[in-house]
């Protein structure tokens, strides 16, 4: 296997398929996952076998670090700061993204919000793809990770809307009660958004106001990705043609010249 090297924060000298890496950031419940889902839907990638997908999506939540028992007790009372950069294992995230960029198959755990823990037994296999979407509140916070993205999107949804959605989602899907959600929001989520997430908006290439409601912005992004995928397909078929020509030359049955 080739060594993965970085030059000026970008990958260099790698084998295999190097995907186009798109970072999708924004505050909690801004619609990051929904925007990624819309992009995947519009590109016809959702009802497709995982091994065949040209576009895949992963979440930063798969890189929350493991908590000690004392931290889990705090988390159960809404007293752990999951919005601080220290809550993440950014080294593991960088390593995984480098593997993905090197065109290697990876395994990424899912995250269990009810138990505040990763579910290593419920990992998702990420097969080599042409485009990889990486969504999360702090995907632009760590410079080593920020520098890996070829395109950066920031989902910008007003904070009242985000809080309203978060309350409903956390109660219905993440096993929380109202007091817990509001206390965590006031004590950690909101201050951390202002200190760590919001300042990273300046790194974005495209800001998407109103998230998934902004169909114009989503269609423009989808069009850009579609053009990229078409170019990938063109260069794949050119590579295949070259391969056929060289193979036949080696077998001695035909006399094609090696193509470059
Ligand atoms: N445009 C929208 N209109 C209504 N509800 C939305 C919209 N976008 C997202 N939601 C809902 O808000 C919640 C958070 O959205 P999600 O995409 O998971 O946000 P994030 O990934 O940023 O946390 C989910 O319950 C989702 O269904
Ligand atoms: N055990 C956990 C882990 C994370 N959170 C919150 O999730 C938010 C990030 O996910 P989004 O889908 O909203 O982007 C983040 O704001 C954490 O507060 C949690 O509550 N419990």
From TrEMBL:
Residue ranges of every copy of the Phosphoribulokinase/uridine kinase domain listed in the record: 21-216
Pathway: Pyrimidine metabolism; UMP biosynthesis via salvage pathway; UMP from uridine: step 1/1; Pyrimidine metabolism; CTP biosynthesis via salvage pathway; CTP from cytidine: step 1/3
Pfam families, per the entry: PRK (PF00485)
Classification via InterPro entries: P-loop_NTPase (IPR027417), PRK/URK (IPR006083), Uridine_kinase-like (IPR000764)
GO molecular function, one term: ATP binding
Top-rank taxon: Eukaryota
Alphabetically ordered keywords of this record: ATP-binding, Kinase, Nucleotide-binding, Transferase
Keyword Lyase: no
Catalytic activity, EC: 2.7.1.48
Catalysed transformations (reactions): cytidine + ATP = CMP + ADP + H(+); uridine + ATP = UMP + ADP + H(+)
Enzyme class: transferase
Family: Belongs to the uridine kinase family.
NCBIfam families: PRK05480.1
Name of the protein: uridine/cytidine kinase
